């Protein structure tokens, strides 16, 4: 990993304290890839009792297996996930990150494991279009693409940040905010799971490709992940996991 070495050397020369990200060979030698996610974002990554599970948790495990590796999960707050890559706290993050230019300055993204987007959710049909957000208070999870995109909507009264997406949902349910912007599949599941909660799904605000991330320039690891993910999509493994959670195929067409 010449690039990573160069980065580490440059950092050492600058006196910066950054740890070397593990190149593929080192991960292979240890036999175990360290994966990180949030664990509070159903149905993508969440705890069922003590068991971490969800669409992208299962996809991540299937990909790791195809790479011939064992896996170990770490779960931390959404905000700490991408920065933890540069600090060498884990090898790869699978936590529903949309691929954005801004994030791509700091990390290297793999190929996407699903395609989705941010959707408006409210308690009334009168708040369902982008224009309906004028003068309204909108809840989003801190550090997400929902936060960035709602901030771009002209006329929104306030964008309220919450540490988890679930806390943002709860703010809507208790009417502390007028709307919540979340992933369309999160919304779909929430509406199906709690039909009496009165949640209404409105317009999509934007669409995004969701991918795993490795530390910036760790291309060897990204390539190996991409190859294994491609195989897992081609042989139907990912499709089966997708149907289990969403009754449809959420991979990018
Ligand atoms: N897709 C959104 C983004 O890219 C939200 C991701 C939230 N993920 C999570 N594990 N809570 O920012």
Which terms summarize this structure?
alpha/beta, 2 domains, 8-stranded mixed sheet, 3-stranded antiparallel sheet, 10 helices, 11 strands, binds arginine
Can you describe this structure?
This protein has helices at residues 2-14, 24-30, 55-66, 81-86, 101-104, 145-151, 165-173, 184-193, 219-234, 237-246; strands at 32-37, 40-41, 45-48, 51-53, 70-75, 92-98, 107-122, 137-141, 158-162, 179-183, 200-215. It is an alpha/beta fold. The chain has two domains: 24-115 and 210-246; 118-204. Mean pLDDT is 94; it is low at 11-19. Arginine (ARG) binds at residues 38, 41, 45, 78, 95-98, 141, 144-145, 165, 183, 210. Belongs to the bacterial solute-binding protein 3 family. Residues 1-21 form the signal peptide. Its main location: other. Residues 32-249 form the Solute-binding protein family 3/N-terminal domain.
Helix content: 25-40%
β-strand number: 11
Overall, the morphology is globular
Which ions, cofactors or small ligands are bound in this entry?
Answer: arginine
Number of helices: 10
Strand order of the largest sheet: 5-1-6-11-7-10-8-9
Mean pLDDT over all positions: 94
Keywords: Signal
Main location: other
Subcellular location: Cell envelope
Protein name: Amino acid ABC transporter substrate-binding protein
């Amino acid at each position: 990993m010449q690039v990573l070495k160069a980065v580490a050397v440059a950092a050492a020369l600058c006196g910066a304290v950054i740890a070397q990200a593990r190149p593929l060979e080192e991960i292979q030698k240890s036999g175990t890839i360290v994966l990180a996610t949030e664990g509070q974002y159903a149905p993508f990554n969440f705890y069922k009792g003590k068991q971490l599970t969800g669409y992208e948790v299962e996809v991540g495990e299937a990909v790791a297996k195809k790479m011939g590796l064992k896996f170990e999960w770490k779960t931390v707050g959404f905000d700490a996930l991408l920065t933890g890559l540069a600090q060498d706290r884990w090898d790869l993050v699978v936590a529903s990150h949309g691929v954005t230019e801004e994030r791509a300055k700091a990390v290297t993204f793999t190929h996407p494991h699903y395609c989705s987007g941010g959707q408006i959710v409210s308690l009334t049909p009168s708040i369902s279009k982008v224009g309906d957000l004028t003068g309204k208070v909108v809840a989003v999870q801190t550090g997400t693409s929902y936060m960035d995109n709602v901030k771009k909507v002209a006329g929104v009264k306030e964008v309220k940040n919450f540490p988890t997406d679930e806390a943002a949902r709860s703010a809507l349910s208790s009417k502390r905010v007028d709307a919540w912007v979340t992933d369309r599949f999160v919304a779909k599941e929430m509406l199906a799971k709690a039909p009496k909660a009165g949640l209404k799904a409105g317009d999509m605000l934007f669409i995004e490709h969701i991918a795993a991330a490795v530390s910036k320039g760790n291309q060897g690891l990204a390539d190996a992940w991409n190859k294994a993910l491609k195989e897992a999509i081609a042989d139907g493994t990912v499709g089966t996991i997708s149907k289990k959670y969403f009754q449809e195929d959420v991979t990018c067409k």
